[in-house]
């Protein structure tokens, strides 16, 4: 019997902006199948045996890197981690040379995180290796958005026609952008909520509704996604103090009441307990934060499976 | 032996289909007296439907409940980097640990043997069975690996330009087995 | 030396005519309605398609020597200007060492002469020492060494008080302050225009108000001091408005814009195109149209290139790290001709903006197409199509977003100093 065959055409996964609705759903469905492997005693399948995956992180991250590494290993590929402290990058090798060297060592895939926007696209155009964007500056973080969508779908039974509020420093958030692009492709309503310094009006051009207070921004939403308050921003006068920010924008057991009764609360992590989200809400049934993490490995397995198996794009006319 | 006069040949009609299932079920019972430790595992998708039919037949006859599961072999294929497309991954469901169990792997058609090899790799990730046997509806020849079936509905010699299709009532509305040319579309 | 130009369209201040020109040695001997049949002419040009302009000047270029010769040097820079059709260029001071003292000014002029390339190098010296914005340079001496104006371009002068003094002091020597107008506290760390593209690409934006506030400050100080101000590379519609307003009030202001601001918009930054990363940044379509309006109604006096060469490694990197700037000397002519093709300007306007005003505003002898005048012509073939590529560009660096594009129009001949040069 013939199986449904989807032809994944992309060499890289750089963001959700360019993904079609079909591609997004394909990745979510594939992730679902990968979840079963994670339930087994022997969490290993031979699918990507012999492939090498290099994680190249210019920004520190334990969570995302570990998640990708596990995903790669469960699929039987080999992983290498390269940590580049950003200070040495200014004096040493250019990112272009680093990537070319990795390519010369016959690796198959680079998973890159960088603090500057556009970097993953830049290197993807320079190399034949598959490039996975694990976060570029304030631009995109596609694997996070996909695992967020998967989590929402599991809890809400669907991923279309929902209302989602994203609260916090949207301006500097790649998680917010990737989620916005993906959610809009699937016909959802997205509210961005935060002080004007964090949520400028221009986001309306990208399809979001802009709100500057929780009562309006959370009204009737099915999902609240809370973003981390980054303390570096205080230095640039984006907000005066944690106390004030928490006072007006913290998601806690009283402010969550503005949303729907069965709202779920999400956070990409790491969490500042008591600041952008209250401890009691974080530990309550509404919070699905740990479930997000669980799905992260499955989603990243689906991404690596799509990019690294199925032969080269040139061979896909069989 | 069905003669090839038209482009499509009926190997089993509905009645023959059901008789074969009944016979294979009998043979399995005969060779596996310890039904408590028998596990029927279907290879998705065709094998799963066949497994369900065999399971029902055995359970009806012996008035007992038989363990069963399903395997999707997509992640274990040996040609995954060569086929140029991504097959949809179904879910594997093996509800029990397979240590010391008598496993009967079930598929609708046995061809090159690679699918069965992949299924066995998957099985070993779920435990160490005492024995694995293979049951198939049709053996169409052209083995590329040293794999053989213990229970066979029928051996049908085919050419590489032909395809054997097993239809199930639950899926396509009728039970039958058809041999046809690869180029003909239905 | 005799040069005959028959059947050409000449662009003069009294109009655009089909005429025939005879040049003897360095002087325009005769302009006639009849064809010249001179015997023994060294060069005879007979081509109805060609346009004879007075020699063109690009007042805003960066030639990077001394100090940054890996990007461009005076020789390659003047060669690029020559092939771009220019007979003189204004050269900015952000070299290393900075052109804030007469030694560097002399060096630049001598080096230019040494190369023998027929392009006059006119230094625009610094306003403040080291471009630090703290202490004024010795403007009197710099003028004597050949500086035609003063600018800290690359940067703006931060302190309004210092800028005021600069205007006043420059007035002593009848010199213009050439302003890169920007409020750098607003634009700090910005990468591209603040707006739709910056939000989508996740890049820090440069708000238009950085330029608007900068221009307003510089114009107000010019008004206060009675000084002469030239605002360079205007990119916003509000900037054009401000110049219009202050001109009406009688302030001695002139301004220029660059072809990128009337040809491109921020949309080409899609995909993180570092070749389009410039300061001021590319803006929106309504700005682009307002710039064209400003050129049409004369608010914008001059078109310059802001030729800013950068080495390949400085553009082939992460967007945030890429240097700001694009080259422009060789794409000026075809892009300016587009303005005529869309009906915004005529050839006479182009001559004003690319030749007469640049020379006049900086008190340089203005080339004229008139009998008895020195023969300094840029002869352009407006229909010649050519592709911008590493091979066709003469500057050392090739950082332009027009790479790969086919443009229409190129300078074919330069007549200067009694000599003729055929460029292609």
Would you write up a description of this structure?
The complex is a heterotrimer of chains A (about 325), B (about 190) and C (about 425). Chain A has helices at about 20-40, 65-75, 85-90, 95-105, 120-125, 140-155, 175-185, 215, 230-235, 240-250, 280, 290-310, and strands at about 5, 50-55, 80-85, 110-115, 130-135, 165, 190-195, 210, 225, 265. Helix content of chain A is about 40%, strand content about 15%. In chain A, the strands form 2 sheets. Chain A has a 5-stranded parallel sheet. In chain A, strands 3-2-4-5 form a 4-stranded parallel sheet. The relative contact order of chain A is 0.16. Chain A starts with a strand and ends in a 10-residue tail after the last helix. Chain A is α/β, with parallel strands linked by helices and about 325 residues long. In chain A, β4 (about 110-115), α5 and β5 form a beta-alpha-beta unit. With about 190 residues, chain B is of the alpha/beta class. Helix content of chain B is about 25%, strand content about 30%. Chain B is built from 4 helices and 9 strands; from the N terminus they run βαβαβββαβββαβ. Chain B has helices spanning about 15-30, 45-60, 115-125, 170, and strands at about 10, 40-45, 65-70, 85, 100-110, 130-140, 150-155, 160-165, 175-180. Chain B has a 5-stranded parallel sheet with strand order 3-2-5-6-7. Chain B has a 3-stranded antiparallel sheet with strand order 1-9-8. The longest helix of chain B is centred in the first third of the chain and has 18 residues, at about 15-30. Chain B is globular and about 45 Å long. Chain C is an alpha/beta fold. In chain C, the strands form 4 sheets. In chain C, strands 1, 2, 3, 4, 5, 16, 17 and 18 form an 8-stranded mixed sheet that branches. A 4-stranded parallel sheet of chain C has the order 6-7-8-9. In chain C, strands 10-13-14-15 form a 4-stranded parallel sheet. In chain C, a hairpin with a 2-residue loop joins β2 and β3. In chain C, α2 (about 100-115) packs parallel to α3 (about 140-145), α4 (about 160-170) packs across α7 (about 210-225) and α8 packs parallel to α10 (about 285-295). Chain C is globular, with a radius of gyration of 21 Å. Chains in contact: A-B, A-C. The interface between A and C is medium-sized, with 24 and 16 residues.
């Amino acid at each position: 019997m013939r199986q449904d065959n989807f032809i994944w055409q992309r060499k890289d996964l750089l963001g959700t902006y360019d993904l079609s609705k079909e591609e997004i759903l394909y990745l979510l469905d594939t992730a679902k199948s990968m979840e079963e492997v994670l339930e087994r005693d022997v969490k290993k399948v031979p699918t990507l045996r012999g492939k090498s995956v290099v994680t190249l992180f210019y920004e520190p991250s334990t969570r995302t890197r570990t998640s990708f590494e596990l995903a790669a290993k469960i699929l039987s590929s080999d992983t290498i981690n390269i940590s580049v402290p950003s200070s040495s990058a200014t004096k040493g090798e250019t990112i272009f040379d680093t990537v070319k060297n990795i390519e010369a060592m016959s690796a198959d895939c680079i998973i890159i995180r960088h603090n500057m926007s556009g970097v993953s696209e830049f290197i993807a155009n320079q190399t034949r290796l598959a490039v996975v964007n694990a976060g570029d500056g304030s631009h995109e973080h596609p694997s996070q958005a996909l695992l967020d969508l998967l989590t929402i779908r599991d809890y809400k039974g669907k991923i279309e026609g929902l209302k989602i509020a994203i609260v916090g420093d949207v301006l500097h958030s790649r998680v917010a952008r990737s989620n916005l692009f993906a959610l809009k492709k699937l016909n959802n309503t997205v509210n961005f909520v935060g002080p004007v310094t964090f949520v400028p009006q221009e986001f309306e051009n990208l399809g979001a509704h802009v709100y500057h207070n929780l009562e309006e921004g959370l009204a009737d939403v099915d999902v609240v996604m809370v973003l981390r308050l980054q303390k570096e921003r205080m230095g640039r006068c984006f907000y005066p103090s944690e106390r004030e920010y928490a006072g007006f924008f913290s998601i806690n057991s009283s402010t969550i009441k503005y949303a729907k009764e069965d709202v779920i609360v999400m956070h990409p992590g790491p969490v500042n307990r008591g600041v952008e989200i209250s401890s009691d809400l974080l530990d309550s049934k509404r919070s699905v934060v740990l479930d997000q993490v669980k799905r992260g490995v499955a989603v990243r397995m689906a991404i690596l499976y799509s990019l690294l198996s199925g032969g080269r794009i040139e061979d896909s006319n069989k | 032996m069905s003669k090839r006069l038209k482009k499509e040949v009926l190997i089993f009609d509905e009645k023959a289909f059901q008789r074969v299932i009944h016979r294979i079920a009998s043979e399995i019972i005969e060779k596996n007296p310890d039904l408590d430790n028998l596990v029927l595992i279907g290879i998705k998708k065709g094998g799963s439907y066949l497994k369900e039919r065999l399971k029902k037949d055995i359970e009806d006859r012996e008035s007992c409940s038989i363990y069963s599961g399903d395997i999707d072999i997509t992640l274990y294929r040996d040609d995954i980097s060569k086929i140029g497309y991504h097959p949809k991954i179904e879910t594997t469901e093996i509800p029990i640990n397979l240590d010391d169990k008598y496993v009967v792997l079930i598929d609708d058609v046995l061809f090159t043997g690679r699918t069965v090899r992949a299924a066995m790799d998957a099985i070993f990730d779920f435990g160490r069975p005492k024995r694995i046997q293979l049951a198939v509806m049709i053996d169409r020849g052209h083995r590329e690996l040293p794999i053989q079936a213990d229970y066979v509905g029928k051996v049908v010699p085919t050419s590489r330009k032909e395809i054997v299709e097993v239809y199930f009532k639950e899926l396509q509305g009728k039970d039958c087995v058809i041999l046809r040319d690869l180029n003909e579309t239905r | 030396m005799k040069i005959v130009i028959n059947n050409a369209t000449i662009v003069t201040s009294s109009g655009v005519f089909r005429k025939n020109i005879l040049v003897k040695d360095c002087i325009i001997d005769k302009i006639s309605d009849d064809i010249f049949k001179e015997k023994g002419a060294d060069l005879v040009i007979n081509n109805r398609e060609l346009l004879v302009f007075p020699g063109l000047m690009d007042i805003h270029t960066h030639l990077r020597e001394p100090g940054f010769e890996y990007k461009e040097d005076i020789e390659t820079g003047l060669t690029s200007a020559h092939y771009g059709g220019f007979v003189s260029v204004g050269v900015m001071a952000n070299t290393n060492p900075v052109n804030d003292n007469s030694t560097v000014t002399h060096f630049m002029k001598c080096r230019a002469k040494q190369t023998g390339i027929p392009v006059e190098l006119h230094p625009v010296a610094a306003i403040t020492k080291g471009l630090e914005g703290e202490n004024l340079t010795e403007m009197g001496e710099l003028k004597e060494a050949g500086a035609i104006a003063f600018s800290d371009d690359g940067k703006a002068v931060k302190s309004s008080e210092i800028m005021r003094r600069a205007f006043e002091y420059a007035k002593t020597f009848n010199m213009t302050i050439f302003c890169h107008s920007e409020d750098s506290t607003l634009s700090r760390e910005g990468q591209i225009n603040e707006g739709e593209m910056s939000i989508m690409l996740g890049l820090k934006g440069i708000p238009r108000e950085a330029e608007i506030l900068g221009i307003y400050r510089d114009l107000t100080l010019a008004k206060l001091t009675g000084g002469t101000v030239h605002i360079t590379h205007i990119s916003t519609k509000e900037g054009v408005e401000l110049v219009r307003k202050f001109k009406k009030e009688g302030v001695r202001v002139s301004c220029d814009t660059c072809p990128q601001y009337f040809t491109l918009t921020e949309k080409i930054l899609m995909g993180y195109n570092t070749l389009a990363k410039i300061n001021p940044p590319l803006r929106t379509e309504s700005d682009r149209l307002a710039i064209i309006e400003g050129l049409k109604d004369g608010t914008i006096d001059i078109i310059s290139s802001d030729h800013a060469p950068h080495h390949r490694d400085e553009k082939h990197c992460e967007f945030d790290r890429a240097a700001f700037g694009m080259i422009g000397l060789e794409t000026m002519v075809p892009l300016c001709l587009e303005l005529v093709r869309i009906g915004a300007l005529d050839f006479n306007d182009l001559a004003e903006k690319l030749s007469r005003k640049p020379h006049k505003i900086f008190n340089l002898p203005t080339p004229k197409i008139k009998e008895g005048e020195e023969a300094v012509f840029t002869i352009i073939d407006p229909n010649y199509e050519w592709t911008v590529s590493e091979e066709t560009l003469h500057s050392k660096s090739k950082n332009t977003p027009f790479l790969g594009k086919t443009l229409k129009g190129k300078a074919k001949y330069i007549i200067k100093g009694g000599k003729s040069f055929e460029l292609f």
